[in-house]
Write a structure and sequence with these properties.
The chain is mainly alpha-helical and about 170 residues long. It has one domain (about 35-165). Helices cover about 80% and strands about 0% of the residues. The protein has helices spanning about 5-55, 60-70, 75-100, 110-120, 125-135, 140-150, 160-165. It is elongated and about 95 Å long. The mean pLDDT is about 85.
Length: about 170
């Protein structure tokens, strides 16, 4: 084989090596993206769990949320602040889920359950009053999604212990 032939063979071998490297890197990036999405979803679920767990560890907050869902406008100002903090946290988490779901980074089945739960809270009298005040302060696409879920009215209402009359 001539020197020219060897050079051609070396060029072909190096081209194949580059192609194999590109394929390998593409596969690695896909696996890394899936792992990152799973980690993000896991971290978010921990945060959402923390938001809801505050209700089980703080009886005063639980009562405030229940009263707020019954009638936000009748809450004393300090309780409105507490209710707002809880609901804003819930909706911020829901907006994160909505965005991640739309990006393909969140399991749509879990996302739909969470968005439905949040919309169910907004379907209550007090949740609706709060949403009317906060409505314009969220991203337009998320607002449209939540409004459509609330308007559809075919969601399961929040668990009865959230909405039963409060003494």
């Amino acid at each position: 084989m001539t020197l020219s032939g060897l050079a051609t063979l070396a060029s072909i071998v190096s081209s194949i090596a580059v192609l194999v490297s590109v394929v390998f890197l593409t596969l690695q990036l896909g696996q890394m993206a899936k792992a990152t999405a799973a980690n993000s979803m896991s971290a978010w679920l921990g945060n959402f769990h923390g938001t809801l767990s505050r209700l089980s560890t703080n009886p005063e907050l639980t009562l405030t949320v229940r009263r707020g869902l019954a009638n936000f406008e009748k809450l004393p100002a300090n309780d409105q602040v507490r209710f707002n903090a809880f609901m804003a946290s819930l909706l911020l988490n829901s907006q994160f889920v909505f965005n991640q779901r739309n990006a393909g980074s969140f399991d749509p089945r879990i996302a739909d359950q969470i968005l439905g739960f949040s919309a169910g809270m907004l379907q209550t009298k007090g949740g609706g009053q709060w949403w009317a005040l906060m409505h314009e302060h969220v991203a337009a696409d998320f607002r449209a999604k939540m409004d459509s879920l609330v308007r559809a009215g075919n969601l399961k209402a929040p668990m009865r212990w959230f909405t039963e009359p409060v003494e």
